Amino acid sequence: MSEAMQDAPRKTREDREIIMPSKQLAQKMGLGEIAFNPDSLLAKYRAERDRRIRPDGNEQYQQPKGDFSHFLEDPYVEPDFTREPLFDEVEVVVIGGGFGGLLAGARLREAGVKSLRMIEKGGDFGGTWYWNRYPGAACDIEAYIYLPLLEELNYIPRRRYTDAPEMMAHSQAIARKYDLYENACLQTEITGMEWDDKDGKWIISTNRGDRMKSRFVVMSNGPLHRPKLPGIPGIDDYNGHTFHTSRWDYHYTGGDPTGNLTGLKDKRVGIIGTGATAVQCIPHLGASAKHLYVFQRTPSSVDVRNDHPTDPEWAASLKPGWQKERLENFNILVTGGYAEKDLVNDGWTEIIRNFLVKVGQGDGKGASRSELLAFTELLDYQKMEGVRARVDSIVKDKATAEALKPYYRQFCKRPCFHDEYLPTFNRPNVTLVDTRGQGVDGITEKGVVFDGVEYEVDCLIFATGFEVGTEYTRRSGYDLTGRDGVTLSEKWAKGVSTFHGLLTRGFPNCFIMGTLQSGFTANFPHALDHNAKHLSYIIKKLRESNAKTVETTQQAEDDWVHVIIRKAKLGLRFYSECTPGYYNNEGRPGERSGQNGQYGGSSEVFFKIIQEWCDDGTMRGLEIS
User: Fold this and answer.
1) At 447, which CATH number?
2) Confidence class of residue 477 from pLDDT cuts 50, 70 and 90?
3) Which tens digit of pLDDT belongs to each residue from 348-371?
4) DSSP-derived secondary structure for 214-250
5) Which of 4-13, 15-24, 51-60, 123-132 has the highest mean pLDDT?
6) Inter-residue contact 579 to 298 (CB < 8 Å)
7) Are residues 111 and 197 in the same domain?
8) Region 620-625: what's the mean pLDDT?
9) Are 387 and 412 in contact (CB under 8 A)?
10) Are residues 120 and 157 in the same domain?
11) In this predicted model, what pLDDT tens digit does every residue of 168-181 receive, in sequence order?
């Protein structure tokens, strides 16, 4: 049996026992009398989920093409950029200039790779933080662990939750430190890749007429760069101004990422979407627009942000290795592990922190594994009751407050942390149009329609996020042809198939960075760095042995897919009870979405698997020639 097959212990009868949260369990575990009824909350959660499930799933969104192709354009560069096409050869091409590509470039440089080319469709490095320049854009993970390579650059962020301009500046600083601007192709999109088996190289075509060669390719396309649009009837009919939050139009709104949107003072503005992006930009829209209509399908969970400038004395006290320690401490806690201290101590770690306190006090002594899982769910209910109570304490209109309350578990959707979002709905010029989970009915020439009412707006903003659950090649914007003329889209037509999420058979020397069949954590750059270290380790070993090609064996790939499917089933109950979103394939979790998702165990376990694989040194599961 392979290492991958041995990954998880066998289930015991106790593991299969399902214990539901209850007032009796709360008493047993030391919570005392709870002010909520778990049975009633579960019924409410399910009812809210059910009315949001749509039969079209991900197909409810449309691609930004045709009349909407301008939503993909780069508004941050001078138009009419041209350059001579390239027909040269490099050792490694890294596709993508976000944190993933930057980390890959940095780790490859550390591994001794000199002939390296970065290809990025934007005008500069930054990825998500190149495209997202909307007012209020900032990280929702503490900057001291979110921004990668802080110690390597000897840099400390200005604030606990830094803003988009600082994150883009940090991206540029990484690129400068590791000489990633050298030989880079910016404002360049991949149009296709073909494997030349005789030459042992990839032939890469781009929209600039390039047809370059590379021995290795690293695809770090990133999940948050291709905007998606809602398939709302009449969306083609609207005659007002429109843009997507990832392509913010400051020529129209005025202002800059800090706000002050003076161009909206006489404008009626509508925004569709109330996810993480909307939570950050809506306060600025509400402060500037003549009137703002917020069209909501599902409310976000919005907790206290507690942002503050970096304490210089704290920064001066940090010892070498501080970021790695802080990264690992946070990740252990958010994945349900044990740590003596909570170094980050934020809303992400609160539930498990409370759990460990209670268990440490002896309340969990003698409890079964199923009881402990149910107890964690109770703490989640308690946490979300607090989030909903916060809405009541801030929003004055009772109907608006009720509509803004999230009825789902905290990690069913990405939780938000903001101190100005909820107070915005107390403004007389801000109207929440709650669609009760259904979405708006349509769009007309003048505005947006819901429940028989037309809301006329001069500008309509789409805060509808990015393509996440669609096919990999669709999100990437290109397909690649591997050995024997098989394309990646053909190979993955019935489901993603990889070894460690990094390599897929039939596509030699091609490394995939991201969450597909790989580790996932809320602090995404942390997982990307593990990807980068893993692939740079393999490439370094190949260079040392003068090997020509590497790919996974069929057995290793099959075994890993088996693990992914089996692990996905562990979270099936949780995600099936969640409100629809990209975390659960728009309310349709199942084997295919599980196979096309991340490693279903904790990211800590995944990181241990790949570290032990590297430490073994034998390159098990790979064919090297």
Assistant:
1) 3.50.50.60
2) confident
3) 988 788 777 766 665 666 778 888
4) EEEEEE---SSSSB-EE--TTTTT--SEEEEGGG--H
5) 123-132
6) yes
7) yes
8) 96
9) no
10) yes
11) 999 999 999 999 99
Question: What are the angstrom distances between the C-alpha of 143 and each of 99, 159, 171, 431?
Answer: 13, 7, 13, 33
* Mean pLDDT computed over 306-311: 96
257-269 pLDDT, tens digit per residue, is 999 999 999 999 9
Residue with tokens 């390296």: 116
C-alpha 208/C-alpha 218 separation (Å) is 20
**Same domain for 422 and 297?**
yes
CB burial readout 228-246, b (16+ within 10 A) else e: bbbebeebeebebebbbbb
Q: Same domain, yes or no, for 326 and 282?
A: no
Q: Which amino acid is at 586?
A: E
Which of 462, 481, 512 is at the close of a domain?
Answer: 462
Hey, what amino acid is at 220? Answer: S
Domain range holding 430?
57-66+227-305+382-462
Which amino acid is residue 199, in one-letter code? D
Angstrom distance (rounded) from CA 561 to CA 438:
35
Residues contacting residue 34 through CB under 8 Å, at least 6 positions apart? 23, 26, 378, 382
User: In terms of domains, do 517 and 540 share one?
Assistant: yes
Token digits of residue 607: 């990181």
Domain count, the chain: 3
- Using alpha carbons only, what angle is made at residue 565 by residues 562 and 482, rounded to the nearest 5 degrees? 65
Token pair 């399902």: residue: 18
**Residues 280, 144: one domain?**
no
- Look at 158-167, 310-319, 422-431, 459-468 and tell me which has the smallest mean pLDDT: 459-468
Q: Do 389 and 267 have their domain in common? A: yes
DSSP class of 74:
-
Phi, psi of 623 (to 5 degrees): -105, 125
Whole-number pLDDT of residue 12: 41
Q: How far is 514 from 175, CA to CA, in rounded Å?
A: 20
Q: Give CA 429 to chain center in angstroms.
A: 32
Assigned domain for 581 exists: no
Q: What is the residue type of 308? A: H
